[in-house]
Design a protein that fits this description.
Blueprint (H helix, E strand, L loop, with lengths): L4 H15 L6 H24 L5 H27 L6 H14 L4 H14 L14 E2 H6 L2 H11 L1 H15 L12 H25 L1 H25 L16 H6 L9 H6 L6 H6 L8 H6 L11 H4 L5 E5 L4 E4 L11
Parallel strand pairs: 1-2
Antiparallel strand pairs: 2-3
Length: about 350
């Protein structure tokens, strides 16, 4: 395997740097559950009561509730990595329960996400747990119908409009593409669906089905859209990393292929520090509440951050140019010799 010269010396250094942050702290994990779930329930209750006052007030509260849903998803995410509790059983129980609230079957998603971590940035292993990305060469050689389909798929209104709806309301409801041998993962989908249905019926009988939809649907859609956006910018930015299988390098996939999305403090809190994604990919065993500490105490992990403003430029970057080693937009394609 070919490795970058900087990585040969940096790998032992970053591996040693992250090692001491990989042990979960029980009280911090417990407190994070408390300060995420209880405010979520309280916000949901207030949003429901606000229906009698103004639906605009309800919608404003659903934005706050969506923030807590994103935070609960990060807890579920950490459980899937075994970084939230030392007990595997505790991780699986909490992750499975939260999966009902986030519409994400825990074991099914955990398997797909593990593949994502093992293949992120590998051009020869695209298609599982990622935002599909074509190279310039592939796009130029593709048929007109395939180009059109790819442009449709990469359009912002599809990625961040229909994409979250498809992912959380359709894709997560059926074990599509999951081999039958993955019995636990397939069962996770069915049991999560049953639990969601049961919860919907109980809540509908308690507060009214119309009222339930008026509160929960916008809350879920906002949370899902934020989740998809966060996942997108964590790997889809101009200077990201892609390489062919024989050249792919784990260290570079983490340090260069995963962004440091530097958000305002309040947004970083709601997104559970997942914006420090380069550290997470290098060390998925590090719980989310130790990622910032890990970054602050290790200069070797400092990389150029994406900001809210600069991340907007990522929206239209849709093709990987292997010659320039960067993502480009469809508009930039016209100026490339290999595209003409």
């Amino acid at each position: 395997m070919m490795t970058h010269p900087e990585t040969q010396s940096a790998r032992p250094a970053w591996a040693e740097a992250v090692a001491k942050y990989q042990t979960p702290i029980a009280w911090k994990s417990a407190w994070q559950i408390v300060n995420s779930f209880i405010p979520f329930v309280a916000t949901w209750y207030l949003a429901h009561r606000a229906l009698a006052v103004s639906y605009w007030l309800t919608l404003a509260l659903t934005v706050l509730g969506a923030g807590f849903m994103v935070r609960m998803f990060i807890i579920q995410h950490d459980c899937g990595h075994g970084s939230f509790f030392q007990s595997k059983r505790a991780s699986d129980i909490v992750g499975s329960i939260l999966g009902v609230l986030t519409l994400t079957p825990y074991f099914y998603w955990r398997r797909q996400h593990a593949i994502h971590h093992a293949t992120a940035g590998n051009l020869d292993k695209r298609g599982v747990g990622d935002v599909y990305t074509m190279t310039v060469k592939e796009y130029v050689k593709a048929s007109k119908s395939k180009r059109l389909g790819y442009r449709f798929y990469r359009h912002p209104l599809i990625l961040f409009g229909l994409g979250p709806i498809y992912t959380f309301f359709i894709s997560h409801r059926v074990p599509a593409g999951m081999p039958r041998s993955f019995t636990r993962e397939r069962a996770s989908v069915y049991w999560t669906d049953l639990a969601i249905l049961t919860l919907v019926i109980l809540m509908g009988l308690l507060v009214g089905f119309k009222e339930l939809a008026m509160v929960q649907l916008p809350m879920t859609l906002i949370a899902a859209t934020v989740g998809v956006w966060m996942f997108y910018v964590q790997h889809q930015f101009e200077g990201t990393y892609w390489a062919r299988g024989d050249q792919w390098n784990f260290s570079l996939a983490g340090l260069k292929g995963s962004s440091y999305y530097k958000l305002p403090q309040v947004l970083q809190w709601f997104t559970g520090n997942i914006g420090l994604h380069h550290i997470h990919h290098l060390s998925p065993k590090t719980p989310n509440y130790l990622l910032q500490k890990c970054l602050d105490e290790n200069p070797i992990l400092q990389v150029k951050p994406l900001t809210l403003l600069s991340s907007c430029e990522c929206i239209f970057m849709s093709l990987w140019d292997e010659q320039q080693q960067k993502l480009i937009s469809f508009g930039s394609l016209r100026s490339l010799p290999q595209a003409n």
